[in-house]
Amino acid sequence: MSTRIYTLPLDQTRWQVPGGPTTVFDWDYDAGRDRLLGLYEKGKQKQWDAADRLDWSLSIDPDDPMGIPENSIAIYGSRVWDKLGPKERGLVRLHLNAWQFSQFLHGEQGALICSSRIVATVPDLDSKFYAATQVVDEARHMEAYSRYLREKLQLAYPINPSLQTLLNDVISDSRWDMTYLGMQVLIEGLALAAFGLIRDYAKEPLAQALNAYVMQDEARHVAFGRLALRDYYPQLTQAERNEREEFCVEACHLMSERFVGEEVWRHLDIDPDECIDFMRASEHFRAFRGHLFSRIVPTLRDIGLFGDKLQRAFGELGVLGFADIDLDQLMQQDETIADDVDEARRRQVQQTIAAGEQA
């Protein structure tokens, strides 16, 4: 990506994570677990080309890139928002969208690195097979988000400190299950919920389609983590499970701060402290932040990490009620919506062709 669209010079954003995970070979080429191999088959069949499946000819309104309702803006109703004129409000929308899509892009690079690591470190061959398809998925997601930022928004933000801290913890841990837990369950689970809000509420068709297609892939990735860890965690001691639950508690507190967007308010220099305080006190923002855990909570319960400490943490965050969500139903819904977006685009193309023939 060109450095000219970053809000900071690129040389200030470089980051390296030391670590030396153990690479595991598996010589047992007999058939593995049916559900994991089924995900692998679906992963092969559902590959798509970001250059062709998305309509990059669509133009974007820089003052309202995603066409979302004004009352969904994080500082809507604040004294700061009320005193901004139309031009300044458009700038806030642009920077919030660029910041959000930038974090999606950086998270996808983390997922690319983690999924490639899973191929090397996970001990069973069926997991290696599926993780290989995820590597391609994550590269495609990076391609799409990078192009959207570069061509449509022409603005990008460096990685959010909370996301960077969590990625550092995940990547530097040599245990294969911690890569799964941190990336497949926590980071991608949170991202799925955020993608879903854009998919469901954005009026701009390119952003809507991009997130719908990415969600179709990511739902499989989270399912992959669930299947692998559900089999593995019952084998651990209670002390080992407690350690992983402690990691989840710390990660969830980090992620709860991730969407405050402090970098945006400080970069725009529009009373940043007041904006941040307003957001933290806002019922709307608390509801939004709570929704981001709607995929994480039931997944952790499903894989057997749902002890008292984790439940208390979810209770404090106000998200414990998500524990009973049907994850398989949500995954099927993600698949169906992506297919519906495809069908709507095909109909639009056919109507355009028909109109041209009649002209």
Structure, explained:
With 359 residues, this protein is an all-alpha fold. It has one domain (41-345): Ferritin. The protein is built from 15 helices and no strands. The longest helix is centred in the first third of the chain and has 36 residues, at 86-121. The protein starts with 33 loop residues before the first helix and ends with a helix. The mean pLDDT is 89.
**What do we call the CATH topology?**
Ferritin
CATH classification, class level: Mainly Alpha
Binned, the helix content reads 55-70%
Strand content: under 5%
Radius of gyration: 21 Å
Order of helices and strands: HHHHHHHHHHHHHHH
Number of strands: 0
Number of helical runs?
15
CATH superfamily: Ferritin, core subunit, four-helix bundle
Secondary-structure arrangement, i.e. CATH architecture = Up-down Bundle
Low-confidence segments, ≥5 residues, pLDDT <50?
none
Mean pLDDT, as a whole number? 89
Count of the domains: 1
Structural class: mainly alpha
Q: How far is it from the N-terminal to the C-terminal residue, by CA?
A: 41 Å
Overall geometry: globular
Instruction: Describe the main β-sheet briefly.
Output: none
